[in-house]
Amino acid sequence: MSVLESVAVLFALAYLLLAMRQNRLCWVAAFVSALLYLVIFADVNLYMEAGLQIIYAVMAVVGWVFWRKDNSADALPVTTRSWQFHGTVILGIVIGTWVSGSLLNTYTDAARPFIDAGTTVSAVICTWMVTRKILENWLYWIVINAVSVWLFTDRGLSLTSGLFALYIVLSVAGYLSWRRTLATP
């Protein structure tokens, strides 16, 4: 555990708590957290997780733009998607994980290449879902966070692993909170 990891955890936690409240400032916390975790994950050879942080930083900017009318009648509403949408998402995650994991396994010294790839591919898709306020993102995050707890424990990132364990609980709370504000057709 390092000071850098501690600060990254604080910003990551701030992001999730603010996102649960649908507060636009969540994207500022996400941006800072992503930059800090980029350094941390590269240091422990989780290359997909490190690369994910670049995408998170970009998604933080996208989220900031999409959520620009925070707390107004014109705010982006929470919506839900069909089972067909989710079937396509899951198929995309499986294919993306297989391709990325195979490349990592063949061409790098990546630690846990397929798990790293799976959590990363899933997180990219789910972060996009957050920027669009798709309710089911929280359900995906529960699974991603559970796998991440094991992955980060395996790499000696105890504080980050603890954060992701807390994320599991907060993802359930986020789902329930967003479901209460679900836009009705």
Short note summarizing the structure:
By secondary structure, the protein is mainly α. Helix content is 76%, strand content 0%.
Describe the structure.
- The protein contains seven helices and no strands.
- It is an all-alpha fold and 185 residues long.
- It has one domain.
- 76% of the residues lie in helices and 0% in strands.
- It has helices spanning 3-20, 26-43, 47-66, 83-107, 113-131, 137-154, 158-180.
- 39% of the residues are buried.
- The longest helix has 25 residues, at 83-107.
Q: What is the H/E string?
A: HHHHHHH
Query: Low-confidence parts lasting 5 or more residues at pLDDT below 50?
Result: none
* Broad shape: globular
User: What is the radius of gyration?
Assistant: 16 Å
Distance between the ends: 47 Å
Mean model confidence by pLDDT: 91
* Alpha plus pi helix count: 7
Strand content: under 5%
Major sheet details: none
Counting structural domains, the number is 1
- Structural class, judged by helices and strands? mainly alpha
Report the helical percentage.
over 70%
How many DSSP-defined strands? 0
Output the keywords:
single chain; globular; 0% strand; 185 residues; mainly alpha
Spell out the blueprint of helices and strands.
Layout: H1 3-20, H2 26-43, H3 47-66, H4 83-107, H5 113-131, H6 137-154, H7 158-180
Helix pairs in contact: 1-2, 1-7, 2-3, 3-5, 4-5, 5-6, 6-7
